[in-house]
Amino acid sequence: MHTRIETIDPACPDLRVISEAGRILREGGLVAFPTETVYGLGGDALNPEASDKIYGAKGRPSDNPLIVHIADREALGGIVREIPPKALALADAFWPGPLTMIFGKNGRVPLNTTGGLDTVAVRMPSHPAARELIRRSTGYIAAPSANVSGRPSPTKAIHVIEDLRGRVEMILDGGPVGIGLESTIVDFSERIPTVLRPGYISVEMLEEVIGTARVDRGLMAEDSSARPKAPGMKYRHYAPRAELVIVEGEESRVVEAVNGWIQEKESRNMHCGVIATDETAPLYRVGAVVSMGPRGDEEELARHLFDVLRRFDSMDVACIYSESFYTPRMGQAIMNRLLKAAGHRVVQV
Ligand code: AMP
Ligand code: MG
Fold first, then answer.
1. Are residues 62 and 154 in the same domain?
2. Do 161 and 180 contact (CB within 8 A), yes or no?
3. Residue 153 C-alpha to ligand 2 middle, in angstroms?
4. Atom 13, ligand 1: which residue's CA is nearest?
5. Residue 278 belongs to what domain range?
6. Most buried of 138, 170, 173, 267, CB within 10 angstroms?
7. 346 in helix, strand or coil?
8. What is the pTM of this model?
9. Quick check: is 228 in a domain?
């Protein structure tokens, strides 16, 4: 398949291009597009064949449901059975934005879109191009992250091109995204609203609006006895090709340990990478050192994570050591992705 790649101004996209993309979606084709979180791989959420195509293009397991993207609040009522009052409160506070909520679905949403579930995940993005595209589609775009299943999510158009060129009709290049981690997912099926995937919006921010919320027990855990409620969270994800190990401990000990390990590996002709911060990068004497940004700026750390993971794929490294990033607000979201990328390999020093 030929993939058209169109560059757009993210704040003020060319409406002729967006209309053309909307037409492709209405006709059952696939368009990858920027959102404020990561790039999405869009298809018409109400068309079962379009959903099947999304799974095919990504190589995504068919039990891993898709998030439906809407452009205005009225659209929500068109696909769900009911809207819990707490969901309305969260929509008031955080939509449009990086929050996904799970609702009971009505008959308009095909099971192909929801991975066979009776529920549907819905988000209203704030990105102007995404919103314009939704309006010019059927109003409902199913869009998982626009990466091949298992790879780090795309935060730049080049990541999408690497993974999906030849598998989708069009890629809209709106430049690097603003947040860089996928949306926070909240489920209301139990008494206490539950975060199924941490993101830019933290549990504390949710609690300010709706009182108590909790985090799904299966989220940060490695063992499958605490099975995550979002089916997708059980799959290996975000993985760079090289083996990734997270090294935890006091900063100077982490630096010393990593320098020692890499020196030893280099003596056997194995090259290694390091995921560091602006502050620690100069302290690593060996290896391919990549900084996530200043440790004090967690939004920048989050924005760079997936790009940093992908960057190692084009380097000849056999292993990657990463510092940990338990920052105050987004630390849980960053570490959830990093732990998955590392297959939960963590060494304490
Ligand atoms: P992605 O589309 O790559 O951002 O992944 C979507 C995430 O949302 C996956 O982890 C899914 O398992 C989760 N998800 C989507 N729909 C539902 C649903 N109805 N119930 C629970 N989790 C869902
Ligand atoms: Mg994904």
1. yes
2. no
3. 6
4. 230
5. 243-348
6. 170
7. strand
8. 0.95
9. no
